[in-house]
Amino acid sequence: MTRSTWFAAAGLAAVVAALAGCSGTAPAGAHPDAPHPGDAAAGDAAAGDAGAGGLVSGTLEVSWMHGSADCAQNADPEIQVHAYNPTTYIIRQNKCLTFEAPFVYVLIGTDAALSLDTGATSTATLHDTIKGLVGNRPLLAAHSHGHGDHRAGDPRFTGQADITLVANTVAGQQAAFEIASWPGSVGHRDLGGRMLDVLAIPGHEATHIAIYDRQTGLLLTGDSLYPGLLFISDWATYRDSMHRLAQFAATRAISHVMGAHVEMTSQPKVVYPYGTKYQPAEHVLQLTAAQLQELDEALIQLGPVKPSQPVPHDDFVIDPT
User: What is the CATH number of domain 53-319?
Assistant: First the structure.
């Protein structure tokens, strides 16, 4: 992902001082958090109990591995797998292996599966784990957007009959998700009993999408909204995208807004130094529809001319610099 000199503007010394009281230990996280669902029976089973609004529920009671003060002593696995429910998985990569530590999402339907992003490393581990989760279902290996920390694993997903790798282009996104007109049309992908709505949300990056899972109510927002530094390459386009996304979310049942990174601390408005490999007191991964609305309203108030400095909020930082 494209980064900036946020700490030069915000004052790195102040950030470090604010973090001085943070403490914690890295989780063991040596194994996935749930039984292996790769066989057909597990994948065809109900994804979970119906919750509010008829959504299939899941759990985010998880202690994410968050790096080590001394990465030479880090004993975390290469990836951590959390079962949100039996057909929905969230995977985090090890911060000591890639400070980006992106989150990858796996959604499994009765006929097919989708993985969102191929990660920031090129080893076989992520591919092999995802294949184990989805079993013999065809896999659509998609990308939230085209930055390197979200597609480094692409070579592992190419040249296989049961995997379709989405091209990192606007045309590739349109074809994979039937987005008739970019960026205004809402696209779709049916995994078999599991319909996904897909919105083009360029601004952070030109090919960026968001995915809404009608089954669980999860809204996957990649690098456009997450608890961290929201780097914006095209201010006007990003403002338009977030407004369309907020309008879409306002008419849907949203259980959680799920981005691709965590960079905020548990203290409001305080972000970890960019590039850190140890986040012992980090913000939770999940955001809410209210925070998406907060972002939209802030962008409207800031107006068409991008600000000259980052704008911190309790749970994210708008950074157009």
Answer: 3.60.15.10
